[in-house]
Each structure stands twice: as structure tokens, then as C-alpha cells.
């Protein structure tokens, strides 16, 4: 309504480098051909660390401040298998939850909770994955094996998601 700040749909994520994004896009295209559905566009491939949903744009600076100075160990993310979630018809690439990634997610969730932002439920297991295909037509069993994809993770990104006809567009903040 009038006087209310415009909402921003936001999340924190890891973004692959150009080579990793190209490899993931290739795999997403192959999986979409196998399973049907819509492959994730290369420019939107990412690994979500914490989804916050809709926040007033007036709260974005406080959100950024909540995680300012978050110390985390740099690590390489390895995605080494494909999976399928029947309940939402998504094909994804996943990998092990390495200690550095687990520590990053725990630190991020703790800071978001301390600042009063709604984030992932504490204690809910974090499953590292990158969505490759949405609206897959069937379980695609068995999914093909993939060679491990590795990308260096050195920073997290706060992202604004703008929903559009052809799928979401992401704006790094």
C-alpha cells in the first residue's frame, strides 16, 4: 500500500566462475533434453546459501550490515552428482557438504538470526545443490553420471531476484 517500501526478493548465494557456469549450463541442457522441463539459464546458475524472501528495500542496508565482516575460509566447491526432487520436479547438481561450506552457512544463519532476519531454520540440514532443470517431466531414472565440477568460492553474493516471464533475473547487490 501507499507509504510502504517496495519489496525486494533476496537471497545469499555462491556464484560459479565463467568456466563453472558454462559447464553447469551444458549439463543443464543435457538434463533438460533427457528429462524435459526448462534448463536454468547460464547467467542465473548459483548455489543458494540463505533465502530471505521479500524484504522492504529500506532493510537491504541492514541486511548487508548484518553479514559485514563475516569471516569464512575460502574453499573449492565440488559438484559430483545429479539428483532429482520429485516433489518440486527439479534436477540438480550436488556435492558433499565440506566443513568450510558448512561453517559458512552456519555463520551466515547465525548472523541473520541475530539481526532479526528470517532465514533457513536452524537445525534444518543444508543440502548443497545447484538447480539445473525446473518442471522436469519425470524422474529421469537413472540420471547420468557427471565428472566433478569444481569452482573456487571466495565470496558470497547478496542477490535480488526479479521474477519475469522467462524466469527470474538476478541482480547482485
Question: Quick summary of this structure?
Answer:
This protein is α+β, with helices and mostly antiparallel strands. Helices cover 24% and strands 32% of the residues.
Please tell me about this protein's structure.
Helix content is 24%, strand content 32%. The chain is built from 3 helices and 10 strands; from the N terminus they run E-H-E-E-H-E-E-E-H-E-E-E-E. It has helices at residues 18-35, 60-67, 99-114; strands spanning 7-14, 38-39, 47-56, 75-79, 81-85, 90-94, 129-134, 149-153, 157-162, 169-172. A hairpin with a 4-residue loop joins strand 5 (81-85) and strand 6 (90-94). The mean pLDDT is 89.
CA-based gyration radius: 17 Å
| Low-pLDDT residue intervals, each spanning 5 or more residues | none
Q: Estimate the mean pLDDT confidence.
A: 89
> Taking strands numbered 1, 2, ... along the chain, how are they ordered across the largest sheet?
3-1-9-10
- Number of E-type strands: 10
**Oligomer designation:** single chain
Secondary-structure content class: alpha+beta
Q: Please work out how many helical segments DSSP would assign.
A: 3
- SSE pattern, N- to C-terminal: EHEEHEEEHEEEE
Main β sheet profile: 4 strands, antiparallel
Amino acid at each position: 500500500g501507499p507509504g510502504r517500501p517496495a519489496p525486494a526478493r533476496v537471497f545469499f548465494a555462491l556464484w560459479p566462475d565463467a568456466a563453472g557456469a558454462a559447464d553447469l549450463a551444458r549439463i543443464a541442457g543435457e538434463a533438460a533434453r533427457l528429462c524435459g522441463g526448462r534448463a536454468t539459464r547460464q547467467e542465473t546458475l548459483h548455489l543458494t546459501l540463505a533465502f530471505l524472501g521479500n524484504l522492504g528495500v529500506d532493510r537491504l542496508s541492514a541486511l548487508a550490515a548484518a553479514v559485514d565482516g563475516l569471516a569464512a575460509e575460502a574453499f573449492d566447491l565440488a559438484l559430483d552428482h545429479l539428483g532429482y526432487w520429485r516433489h518440486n520436479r527439479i534436477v540438480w547438481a550436488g556435492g558433499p557438504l565440506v566443513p568450510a561450506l558448512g561453517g559458512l552457512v552456519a555463520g551466515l544463519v547465525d548472523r541473520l538470526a541475530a539481526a532479526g532476519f528470517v532465514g533457513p531454520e536452524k537445525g534444518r540440514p543444508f543440502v548443497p545443490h545447484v538447480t539445473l532443470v525446473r518442471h522436469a517431466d519425470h524422474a529421469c531414472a537413472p540420471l547420468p553420471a557427471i565428472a566433478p565440477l569444481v569452482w573456487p568460492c571466495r565470496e558470497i553474493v547478496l542477490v535480488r531476484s526479479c521474477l519475469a516471464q522467462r524466469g527470474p533475473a538476478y541482480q547482485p547487490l
